Amino acid sequence: MTTLTIMGLLPLMGALAIAVAPKSNELLTKQIALATTIIVAVAGILTTIKFDFADTSLQFVESHEWIPAFGIKYALGVDGIALVLILLSVLLAPVVVLAGWNESEGGRWGAKTFYILLLILETMMIGVFASTDVFLFYVFFEAMLIPVYFLIGGYGTGERAAAAVKFLLYSLFGGLLMLASIIGLYVIQGQNGSPTFDINELSKLSQVMSPTTQNLLFLGFFIAFAIKAPVWPLHTWLPDAAQSATPGTSVLLLGVLDKVGTFGMIRYCLTLFPDASKTFTPMIIVFAVISILYGAFLAIGARDIKRLIAYTSISHFGFITMGIFAMTTQAQSGATLYMFNHGFSTAALFLVAGWMIARRKSSTIADFGGLQRVTPFMAWTFFIAGMSSLALPGLSSFVSEFLVLVGTFTRYPVAAVIATFGIVLAALYILIPVQRALHGPTTPGNENLSDLNLREKIAIAPVIAVIVVLGFYPSPLLKIINPAAANVVTQQGFNDPAPTSIEDK
Amino acid sequence: MGFTSPTLDYALLAPILVVLAGAIIGVLIEAFAPRASRASSQLFITLASLVTALTFLIRNHSKSSVSAAMSSVTIDGAGVLLQGSILIIAIISIFLLADQENFTALAAALPGSDEERVSLAQDLKVTEVYPLTLFAVAGMLLFPVSTDLITLFVALEMLSLPLYLLAGLSRRRRLMSQESALKYFLLGAFSSAFFLFGIAYLYGYSASVTFVGLHDAVVGGSGNDIFLLLGIAFLSIGLLFKVGAVPFHAWAPDVYQGAPTAVTAFMAAATKVAAFGAMLRIFYVSFAEDFLHWRPALTLVALITMVFGSLVAIAQRDVKRMLAYSSIAHAGFLLSGVIALSKSGLDASIFYLFAYGVATVGAFAVVTLVRDSAGEVTDLNRWSGLGKRSPLVATAFAGFLLAFAGIPLTSGFIGKFSIFSAAYESGSVSLLIVGVLSSAIAAFFYIRVIVLMFFKDAADDGTSVVIPSIYTQITIVTSFAITFVLGIYPTPLINFIANTATFLR
Question: pTM of the full predicted structure?
Answer without folding.
Answer: 0.90
